[in-house]
Amino acid sequence: MFIKRIFFAAALLLTTASIICAQEALKSTEEEYYDFLALEGVIERPSLGYRTLSDSVWNVPDDADGNVWAGNNLGTAKKLTDHISFKLYGPDWYNSFNTASPYGQNDGALWQGKGYNTSLTAGARLEAYGFEVTIKPMVCFSQNLEFDYMPSAYESEYGYFWKSGGSIDYPQRFGDEPFFTFDWGDTEIRYTWKTLTIGFGTQSPWLGPAWLNPMLGSNNAATYPKLDLGIRKTSIYLPWLHWYIGDIEARLWTGMLTESDYFDSDSSNDHNMINALSVSFAPSFIPGLTLGANRVFLTKWEWENLKYIGRLFTLSKGNTAEDQKISLTADWLFSKVGLELYGELGIDDYANASTILDYIKYPFHTMDYTVGLKKTIPIIPKYNIYSELIFEWNNFEMSQDFQLQWEYMGFYSHSIITQGYTNRGQILGAGSGSMGNSQYLGLNVYYPKGKAEIFVHRTNPDNNYIYSKAVYEKAGVVISETGKTLEMSYFSAFKATWTMGISNEYFITKDFSISGGYAFEIIVNPLYQNGLFTEYNNIIQSEIKYRF
Predict the structure, then answer these.
(1) What does the pLDDT read at residue 129?
(2) In this structure, are residues 378 and 389 in contact, taking their beta carbons and an 8 Å threshold?
(3) Per-residue CA distances from 114 to 117, 153, 253, 304 (Å)
(4) What percent of the chain is predicted at pLDDT more than 90?
(5) Which of 209, 166, 462 is nearest to 327 (CA)?
(6) Residue 142: partners with Cβ closer than 8 Å, 6 or more residues away
(7) In this structure, what are the phi and psi dihedrals at residue 36, rounded to the nearest 5 degrees?
(8) CA proximity to 86, closest of 119, 133, 29, 47
(9) Rounded to whole angstroms, how far apart are CA atoms 435 and 403?
(10) DSSP character for 53?
(11) Phi and psi (nearest 5°) for 345?
(12) What 3-state DSSP class applies to 20?
């Protein structure tokens, strides 16, 4: 009888408790909607430059002006007592079908190959007395139909198609059979005291302001176990004077990365260690501006390599036992006019320069960059219809000084950490144009019952492969593998994709939504042939989501 009374009381609390906040997964419909409200100045962003599900806590008054989806349930925590709250996630069922080749990014452990692909995620979160326990795994299926791809340059026949001056665990296809994947997703246990926080779990961090292709942290790959420690977004005041000088955020973490099944057969090198630091600052004297820095060390998985945590705080010169990367970010939000400008600058193994003079004479060595903007555009405010324009340009091509050095695969590859900046065969950062470039232009239209989207996206997935052919060579040199000159072999062999798509999400009820989308992808030179051979890919997507 006593147990029954406890269950009855818990059920009653769940149904009558007040809503306190919303906490959303990276790149979910809900998180992107809340970010749109922040762009409009309706609400404030909960973080500066480091985002996971646990850090994405949005406080959204239902009656806030401009809250287009005020009548829809986006999933909120239920307050059981003054110190205990509970939230259910999902279920969220995603489906896609690619008719000609793989297509998809920022989808976690799911690999969207040719054919049918699907993922299902659901979970729960309990918060009590500073502790946070989240269980939110993902189950995926890929039909993985056959398609034409380049000959592998690795032990596995499915591996990436070239390596020179570095290598990468980046399979073109994940075997030759359909497969299931289980991933722990946004699962984590955490304790927070005021703004100090420590946690262990598998939540992927999104680093910096990039909307599509952040350099060093995204949810493009499967998750990995990590331990993190830091300070959540915190206001800073000068001692004694009590002057507010801005907000700061910092996170330090170490984790274990895992090789895919399609790289090599050496079980002794299946794991790498990642040690990383992310710091952001939003000065009070320049409203809307946020500056950030992210630094990463990759090493072999050995406990002694925890020493690289200390290296994160120094500018010491690199060595051959590790792969280090840094990115600097800037984000300026003008909420009064609904405009955001952002950028990211990345450098690979930047500390290998001997003196500051190396940066003066040629600062572009291994440098990558991203620039982007977001702009809100009212359409029919009377009927609560608003739009958001998004543009992002990413460049990950090798710097031109490598034409005088060696074949540089790119920002995500390395000669010692042979798997590169990947986990289970997918890149931890930018999912498109990761060794080339990417340009994205999209328009989101929000209305009371949903969201419509139209976009165009152009990429060169790997221009470095073409550029590597010209290192030490002249255009007129005859290439043995083709019997033609370098110019005739590769001048027109760049691979490029052009994708145009539309989608719509609609709330059937306040708790239940469905979405569907279609995209048409033109793939020019899919096998890097000299010429203009073209392939066409039709992409059909759907999603069903229920929110408690």
Answers:
(1) 96
(2) no
(3) 8, 22, 35, 42
(4) 78
(5) 209
(6) 110, 111, 112, 113, 115, 116, 117, 174, 178, 179, 181
(7) -65, -40
(8) 133
(9) 16
(10) T
(11) -125, 125
(12) coil
Quote the tokens at residue 337. 């006019």
Nearest CA among 113, 116, 120 for reference residue 147: 113
Q: Is the pLDDT of residue 206 over 90?
A: yes
CB 152 within 8 A of CB 159: yes
> Exposed, middle or buried by CB within 10 Å (0-12, 13-18, 19+), for 189?
middle
pLDDT at 365: 87
Residue 62: CB atoms within 10 A of its CB come to 10
- Residue 29, φ and ψ in degrees, nearest 5: -55, -40
195 in helix, strand or coil? Answer: coil
- Residue 430 identity (one-letter amino acid): A
In a 3-state reduction of DSSP, which class is residue 142? strand
Count of beta carbons in the 10 Å neighbourhood of residue 291: 18
**Amino acid sitting at position 217:** G
The answer to whether residue 167 scores a pLDDT higher than 90 is yes
Report which of 526, 530, 547, 407 is spatially closest to residue 469, judged by C-alpha positions.
407
Nearest to 376 by CA among 456, 445, 440, 287: 445
pLDDT digits (tens, 9 = 90+) for 268-317: 999 999 999 999 999 999 999 999 999 999 999 999 999 999 888 887 66
Place of tokens 């203009």: 532
- The burial of 194, by beta-carbon neighbours within 10 Å (0-12 exposed, 13-18 middle, 19 or more buried), is given as exposed
The predicted model scores a pTM of: 0.93
Q: Which residue has the tokens 């940066």?
A: 359
